Amino acid sequence: MRSKRVLPPAVLILCTAALTGTAPAVASPQNAPQAAPAAAPTATPAAPLRILLTNDDGYNAPGIRKAFERLTTAGYDVTIVAPLTNQSGTGTKLAGAPTIAVKHPEPKVWAVDGTPGDAVSFGLAEVFEGHAPDLVVSGTNFGPNVAGLATHSGTVGGAVVALESGVPAIALSTGGLAVPDPTATVNAMGPTVDFAVKLIDRLRDRARSGPLLPKGVGLNVNHPVVGADGKGAAAGVAATFQDPQAPLQPDYTDAGDGTWKVNVQFRPQPPVRGGDVEAVNAGKIAISPMNADWNAGPAEFAVASALIAGLRP
Predict the structure, then answer these.
(1) Are 133 and 159 in contact (CB under 8 A)?
(2) pLDDT (average), residues 120-134
């Protein structure tokens, strides 16, 4: 271990003067013992993290407003850039039109008439032009984004668009696979955003001066609704993966006139051990790492390589 270097008193006084802008007293053999100690320089506080806050329920939905209030109270510099209207289930969709309308109804709030992906894209290009935010937070969503729900989620989609642009992102959702009680779910958004602050604090403290998350990696966070009123505390926190089940199952009925009626059924399956569904069902907060490039893992790559071995065009 390298030994700590102690500077001579005269050098310390000169360094202090340079930092504080004060003129040091001239040291001499006669007055050095009587010289008053220099005041220690005041540490410059670190600038607050800059957060782009989005969602898929709309810029004025309860979840995003609770998140804005709590994150701001915690000392973060938060700007809402979110859809003008409810865009649930739009996934990673980006604008399909040559123009997009944007409103700026109040300070620190931008409402984009498009998808969560549009909102994040606009926010990074215009609102945060030239100085990307430290973090994109998408949510908190009304309802869960676990298993196959996450694949089609606008909340998760907004986070993915941020990851594609190299910005760390967290998707935040409130609810379980049971039929949600609206009042309890809204109440549970309070504990959800309280936990989000703890999580972001942890990321900031561990990152120090570097990025909050590894490049290309985001977090899909699902907070359960605990208690009949939704105000209960979660049973714990679990690192999970996205359960592979697809709980949304469409049923089609032929109307006989060239059209088909569609009725989407909610049919959850038994949870996979270690997955996000299992954790939320147990009253735990599920945190699943995710990326934006859709690459499978090494095992799946090996399977694909074996499948094409020997094939020729």
Answers:
(1) no
(2) 97
